[in-house]
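Pipeline run #58 for the internal structure catalog. This entry was flagged by the ingest filter as a single-chain record with no existing model, so it goes straight to prediction. Upstream metadata was stripped on purpose; only the residue string is passed forward. Reviewer on rotation: M.T. Logging verbosity set to normal.
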Amino acid sequence: MSLEQLEKLCVICGSKLSRHLPHYGQRKVCGNLECTRQKNLALARSNDRKRRKRQRRQEATQGKGLIPCAVCGERFELIQHTHLRRHDLTMDDYKRLYPDHPLMSNAMLEKRGLGSINQSRYLTYDGKPMDEKFHHFMVGVMLGDGSLEKRPNKKNARYAEGGNNQAYLRWKYNFLRQYLPCTFTEKLSAPHSKSGKRYLGWWIKSGVHPDLTQIHKLFYPNGKKRLNHMYLARYFNAFSLAIWVCDDGYIQADSSRSFLHTQSFSKSETEWLSSLLQIDFKLKSIILFNQKNQPFIRFSRSSTTRLKKIIAQFEIPGMEYKYQ
């Protein structure tokens, strides 16, 4: 049988590939979207492993101390479960089989030690006390793109946010570091769950702080972000609204209408927010629903004009296109 007569099978689901598919000779998966997603994700992970391997080789040539895996000899700063899976081992298996073998390099041990110190830097950080302006800011980001993270094994929460608008995120970073120790870094995102693609962006992470833990309790009562009416009623102001619009708002180029994307909130929560905007800023709006039946807010032309004036007074970098 010639190679041309051999049936090609999808490497994911095993189904026969149709010869009518584009680029049949080079295809490895059928036209199913889930198969394509899994292949792209596997390719992204493979490329990431190769990238990290090249990086480790470069570090080894530069004299950085790496430790070898006791099974295959490949060298790492840290032996992780993701590598041990290739040997059908768990971390507990590895520790039991190789009790005297180190799990991390001296450099990594030192880095981990510094990280533990940095997590409690709020005790010695020379920042401002968390005043009302800080809480106005937190209202805006919690309605928008900001998040508070608290790991189960950690006592306190920290602030985290990422995106591709460098100027805007740097402005947020500069605001937060007046109060908290923060980092602002450029890095690749994790592979996208559907496409497997990775994106370059900028990330803000603060140190942990007890005050952030209190706010976390208000907005994440069951682990999922929810509105806290008392906190919002107390601290929501024009500054909060400007940040919220910069995060999740859209203003049409002709200023005929504008929107606030509230899809992460329930219908009743969105109705409450719409009422708050009407009472505090005389912004008239209606609630619409997208194809997934998720609510969002739409403003009229007159309210859009008023909204732009509110945002413009703060001159937020990277968001000029929303208020000019």
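catalog note: The chain has four domains: 26-60, 65-119, 130-235, 237-324.
catalog note: The longest strand covers residues 182-188.
status: ready for reviewer M.T.
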